[in-house]
Amino acid sequence: MSFYNINEKIGSILQDILTKIFDEKYSNKLNNIAITWINYEENSKKGYGYGINNRKKIYPASIVKLVYALAIYDWIENKTIIRDTQVDEAIQEMLQYSSNDATSFIVDLLTGTTSGPSLEKEIFNRWKYQRTIINDWLKTLNWEELQDFNCCQKTWEDRPYGREKDFYGTSNKNRNAMTTDGTARIMEEIMQNISFNEKNINLKNCLFREIKEQSPYDDTNNQINGFLGAGLPKKIPFWSKAGLMSEARHDAAWWINKNQSKTLLVVFTEGKEFAYDNYFLPKFSKAIYKFIHS
To answer: Full-prediction pTM beyond 0.90?
Structure first.
């Protein structure tokens, strides 16, 4: 059973929006995208929505940082690790600015591993066992949307070396893999279901972004230009985490509408055409927002 109510009207609207956008520019590219779109009434905890390719496992790029952030929150909550200034700073840098250095620190903290040169077989097997601790933790959540998630790899400016490269396996078969439904479930947990307090990190605050006029030359790490936020009105309450690499452009966004309803929209796009395109995600979110306020 899905964590949101399936709404066929939303599904029909979603298809109409995609057909219009795809007819303009992206013919025969539907298999290159995955979408989960959920709306929430003002005081509702459970939303209604629809998905396309929403259970398809896709390399998430920096979207995986949402998993690592929620894991850190849970580790602190259960006193598995001790919160300190460096942890706070790393989570802020990882979510707000998508820092890969901060992510590396967080993954090491969660798993008790470090990067470095290749390891002998027995030592490497122990290292790999430690690295999959995050996947084991995901299973304990008992969320069907997270089935077969693989979230055990760091994110890189360039590419992995040494034991990290070995861990990816032949043809990168062990790389991270997530779905838009599972990503939406994690985003909903952060935005809707956790009562943050001063004893733990406020992940919601780390994801908040101000939508404002952006220079076309701004760093893509602002996670607005070319992403879902760019298609929404300025000053709207908005939270997001984007992912970008040479063959993927993703975004997970949450915003509050004029009528105080809320929208959760997760979009994964695959292939170089989408990765280098600043048009699709803003065009898509603009059409979603227009429908909600029609």
So the answer is: yes
